[in-house]
Structures are given as structure tokens and as C-alpha cells.
Amino acid sequence: MIDQLKASAPGAVGAQATRKRGLRSLHGLAFTVPYLPFLITFGILPMVYALYLAVTDDTGGWVGVDNFTRTVRDYRFLPAFGHILLYTTMWLGSLVVLVVGLALLLHGRANRVTSVFRFLFYIPGALAGAASILVWLFMLDPAVSPGSFLLHLFDTDLFVESIAPGRLPFVFAMIAFWTGAGGWIVVMYGALNTIPDELEEAARIDGAGPVTVALRLKLPLIRKWIAYMTILAFATGTQLFVEPQLVNQASLGMVPDTWSSNQLAYQLAFRYGDFNGAAAISIDLIVIALIAAVLIVKRTGLFRTED
Amino acid sequence: MTLLRNSTSLRRLRRPALASLTVAGLVAIAACSGGGSADPKASQGSKELTVWVDSVRLPVAQAYVKEHPELKVNVVTYDGDGNGATTMQTKIQLWNRTGKGWPDVVFSQQANDPVWMAQKPFEFAAPLKGLIPDDVLSKWPATSTAQCSVGGTQYCVQDNLAQVVLWVNQKLMKQFGYQVPKTWQQWAELGQKVATEHPGYIIGNIGDSYGHWIYLWGNQCPLSQLQGDKLLINSTDAHCTRVATMLDPLIKNGSLPPLSVFTPDFAGKFGGAKDKVLMMPGPSWYAQAVFDQTLHIPPGRITAAPPLQWDTETPVTTGQVGGGPWIISRHSQNLTGAADFVTYATTVFNPTGKDARPGYPAYAPLADSWLKAMAANPYFAADPTPALKSAADQVWGGWNLVTYPDQPEWSNTVVTQLVAGKSLSSLLPPLGDSLAKAAQAAGYTVNRQ
Fold first, then answer.
1. What average pLDDT does range B203-210 have in this prediction?
2. Do A46 and B263 touch (CB under 8 A)?
3. Is the Cβ pair B260, A278 closer than 8 Å?
4. Is A274's pLDDT higher than 80?
């Protein structure tokens, strides 16, 4: 059909290009329309409402940035964002390095081996979010953990020691990696599959070994996929909530209930009835995620198209 | 490939979706405006009753349903627990925002819950005066009524009293030739003796989220004392430091481990056939709930001794762990029904045998019959009821209940550090700081000394 249209407009090249682009966006719209109502109801409207709450007080009066300065001064604000910074750094670092590394390794293997490993990596991710954290609650308790010998290696004889304050960012990053990395390894593997065989062959003929092929050829070609993963992982990382919340309850309060910034927002809203302060923290998180996303998009040319 | 990718991105979406629950919830409730200040209009005609209870109180609700087939009673169970869990606060905030959905009666395991429920921004609890007759209300101990009152108005009745006593393993004490201690000093001395003569045996534990209620509340450490419109939090008061100085060597020598009694570890190390609990200061409900059902200590060993005295100081005061209250909603459309339910739960319901109430009933006439049954209970080595009864009104009144939970502060700043090997004495100042911050965040003006 496109070809027909193209053929029927042989004259002006510029006009053709415009129409082509218009048609393409029409097609795109058809695919995105079913998602739009959900995006608006559960994404955009709540964001707008949060923005409204963040700049007003509980009577609806305009207060400007008051909610923001007030929450920043809260004694739990900086520790919570500090925890998140540490956690996100660990989780993103391990995600990017290990996921890409494992995917590259997998891609170099024979097909049967690869599919077995792909399956193994994906299994933990098949557990629903909260359930996988419950699994970890048992894994971290030396009294019941099948890996207790490993915990003892780290001088840990009690559950309370497993979740000692200094270890928490590491523990949460480990849980997140375990539940989330498998899926991404499969995605990266898929991305590697889009690299034409001819390219690889040409590189080999030029004398490139497997390491050079992986690092010099494959890695740059899946750069955009890595950027995509980083943006999504950054957003989920900064919004950490379920892990610390469940560990808080399971440890009978040994872990603060305002460990992460999202938890602090939750506590502000429901313990103190301060929905405006909670909204301000949510906006902080959106802004941080947006800035990070823009930086990554600019740096990697994620949305740059070839033509 | 496409399929895999989709499911992967769906999985990634799940967490942010959960995380932005707050925001999503806000949209849903944005449609219903002006919920905050519902007025307590009570129509007495309603035959419906909604009751929120924890799993321990479920039998009460079920018994009430059975006795009142003409009523439509909705029983909802929820975790109802402490440690700062915000289940009930979240619910009430949402009900207040939507202006509907409140239950008629709520049970909470947290003795301090009525304090925030009675005040802004929650304003959930109904004053009990006029709902339950005065002559019934007057039969709760004065200390219990005081805990249920905010600004002179009573908002709850306690289901049970949770006075701390000294639980003693009589068989072991006889075997070791020890005397049951009467004072904290004698108790600590025994701790030193046990550590050298019978290492591995314990005289208590300090790893629970409520350890401060056992050791600091009872010894009059002012960590939660209302003085007019100010709240006194002085963790370096002599009443606190002298306790810490006494406990530190015991924590170090292993006779007072910083472990929680509710961990599998604890039961494995000290419970069951090992039978290594020599003594344990703990609340009245420890009776069978902890020694029998959690630690599986065989029958014929445990009994209760009166709360420990500090040297020769009088009067003897003790701490409290729990003492869950019943609260009636001020939004209830069936206040009479709600009051009837609460009256039944606290003054009538008292099964015997294995269905017996786990805690010491707060309503005095009911306590008498409960104590009688307990005195005859063959699980105990000797009648524990005189000690329990004498401790019932010894709970120190200088520890006031406040709107914020203090357990998380104790757990985060003290318990985690005790486990890491720090001394309790060195942790008292940070405990005070963290309590003061929590109090200020909750709107209190804090006085530090």
C-alpha cells in the first residue's frame, strides 16, 4: 500500500517525504492508541495531580515550593535519598556490567548451551515481585537458609546481622539483580541476534578474536539497548519500595520504615496525613528520573534514527 | 523474541506501578471531595456492623456473630500489629478522604493507637462516655483508663492488660539452688552467677522490638512523658543509665542475649527440650503464648513472680508490652451495636480450656474468673496468678502513650547495634535523639531534660 502511494506521488520529493512521515506516525498511533487511556489514567493524570498537591497545602491554597523545602529539611529525607543513591549505583553497575557480560558470553556459545542458560537466567524473574522478596527473606535468615554456609562466611549468624544497616543497599541490589537481571539478559541476547552475521564474519576475516568481536563490534551495536535498559532500571531503582517495606515488616521494624525515599513519601501521606509533602517527594523522584533519562538519551543518541 | 521482550518490560513496570501506589490512589480519591470532616451522625436503626480484628481476636468476633444471628456482622481480619505498621493509618486516611467505608469497631494490638485515632488528621475514635455505661467503664483499672484517655476523654477500652512480671523456670531454679530474685540487683547478680556456673542459660532477653518497655519503662526511664504540652524524652536520666549499666555486663556474658524471642533461632537455642530459659522478665501474655506455644518449654516448669523492684525503692513499678485496645468509630451508623460488641468482647467473652483468652482481661470482674482458670492450669509449675494480679496496677504511669510508634526507633538504633556488639549505655544518647526526632516529626514539642 505504501508502495502504491509512493508510486502515485512521483513528483515533489519533499512532499513525498512529508506524507511518508505523516503516514508512519498514523501507523504508530494505531499501535499506541490502546495504551493511551491507561497512560493518561494511571500515568499522566496522577502526575498532574501530584504536581497540584505538591504546590498547594491541605486546604488547596498555593504555597509554591514550600512543600519541597519542608520535605528536604525532614530529618529522614537525606538519609533516604542517600540510601537510594547507593542502592541505585550498585544495582545499575551490576546490571549493566553483568547483564551485558553474560549476554555476550551466551552469544558466543553453541545454540543448545545458550538456550539452557537463557532459561536458567530467566527463571528467578518469573516469580512475581513481592513473592521473590519473600524468598529472599528466607535466604537471608541463617537459621533457615539453604545458603547459610555462605552467610556464615560473612560472619552472619542471625537474620538481624544479614540486614544490618550497612549491608542493606547491597542486599536490596542483590535481590533486585536476582529478580530482574534474567529478563534483561534475554533481551540483550535478542539484541545481539539482530547483528548481521556478515559483520561478524568480516571482523573474523580481519583477524579479530572473540574478545575483540564482543567488545569492538557487538558492544557498540547494542549500545542503544543498554541505554534503554539503564533508563528503565534507573527509574525502578530510585522508586525502590517493596523490598525495604517487606524487610521492615518481616524484621519487626529492625529496618527503618523510611529507608527509601518512596517509603518516606508513603509514611508522610499515611502516617502524618501530609499528602502534599508526599507529592513533593514524588515530584522530586520524577524530576531525578527525567534528568537521568534525558542525559542518557542525549549521550547515547537513543532516539536518533539513521535516515 | 517480541513476546519475551514484552513480558520483560511488563515485569519491569510492575515495581514502579506498585511504588507509585500512593499517587495512583490519590487519583481514585480525587473524585470524591470533602471527605475529611465527616460529622458523627448516628442512626440507631442500622442492623449492620463491621468489625476489624487481628487473628487473635477473631474468635471473639465469631462468637458474637453466633450469638447474634439477627445482625449482619462483617468481620475483617488485618495484621493489626505494631512495629510501626501503617495498615490502619493508611485505611483511615483513605476512608476519611472518600468520606465512607469506616468500620464500626476496630481492635489494635498497639496500645498507643487510640491516641492518634482521637486526634487530627485521623479523628476516627468516638468518645466512649454515653456509649458504654459509666459503671461498666469504672471497672477497668485506673492505669488502663488513663492510657485510653486523650485530653481527659476516654476513647478506648483495653482488651487485656500486659503488665510485665518476672517469669521463672521453677524446676531449673530448684535444680541450680537459686532463690527467686525480688530486686533487679539480685536478678543481675544471678545473671553473673549463671554465666559462670551454667553458661548457656539465660535470665531474659533484650532483642525484641519492645525491649525498652520491659527494662526501661518499668524502671521509670522518662522516654515518653507528657508534661503539659511538652513531651519529655531524656534517655540520659539516671533512671535509664543505671539500668543500662546493670544490663551491659549481662548482655556481654550471654545471660541476657540481644535476640528476639520470636525467632526460630531463639526457640532452637533456648526452648524445647533444651530448656535453657531460667528467668525472663516479660508481659502477662507470655504465659502460654511464648513459653508453651513458641518456645515449647515442657509443662510443670514455668510460673510468674512479682515484678522486680529497683533496690529498696517504693512503690514497685513495672512496664507494659501491648494491652491492645478496642476503638469505636465516630463515623459509625450503628453506635449502639458497636458499643454492644465492644462490651461483649471485653466483659462477657471468656471461654475456658484451650480456647481461653491469651491475655489477662482488662475488665476486672472478667479477670477474676480468668485468673481462677489459670490458677488451675496444669501447665504452670505453681499458681502464677498472685504475681500477675499484684502487677496489674503497678504499670508505671510516667510513660505516656503518644501518636508515633517508638518501637522502630528502639529497634533501629538499639537492637541492631546491640547485635553488632555495642553497649546499651553507649546507645542511650542516640536512642533519645532518634525518639526526639520522631516525636518532633509527629508534632510534639520535645523537652530533652
1. 94
2. no
3. no
4. yes
H or E element: which one contains A139? helix A129-139
Question: Are A42 and B22 a contacting pair at CB < 8 A?
Answer: no
Band (pLDDT 50/70/90 cuts) for residue A161 is confident
**Whether A49 and B26 lie within 8 Å, measured CB to CB:** yes
pLDDT tens digits along B297-320 = 999 999 999 999 999 999 999 999
**B-proximal residues of A, 248-267, CB under 8 Å:** 248-249, 251-257, 262, 265-267
Mutate to test the interface with A, among B260, B412, B433 (most CBs of A within 10 A): B412
Question: Hey, what amino acid is at B270?
Answer: F
- CB-CB under 8 Å, B264 with A141: yes
Q: Where are the domains of chain A?
A: 1-33, 78-300
Out of B18, B90, B411, name the one closest to residue A253 (CB).
B411
Q: Does A3 or A42 have the greater pLDDT score?
A: A42
pLDDT of residue B87: 81
Mutate to test the interface with A, among B3, B20, B79 (most CBs of A within 10 A): B20
**For position A142, what pLDDT does the model report?**
85
> Which chain A positions have a beta carbon within 8 Å of B11's beta carbon?
125, 129, 180, 183
Query: What are A71-102's pLDDT values in tens digits?
Result: 999 999 999 999 999 999 999 999 999 999 98
Q: Give the number of beta-carbon pairs within 8 Å between A and B.
A: 151
Instruction: Report yes or no: A71 at the B interface, CB cutoff 8 Å.
Output: no
pLDDT at residue number A128: 67
Q: Hey, what's the cell of B304?
A: 510468674
CA B140 to chain centre: 17
pLDDT at B81 over 80: no
CATH class of the A78-300 domain in this structure: mainly alpha
Is the model's pLDDT at A18 over the cut of 70? Answer: no
Whether A270 and B416 lie within 8 Å, measured CB to CB: no
**Tell me: the pLDDT tens digits for A107-120?**
877 677 778 888 88
Whether A7 has a pLDDT exceeding 60, the answer reads no
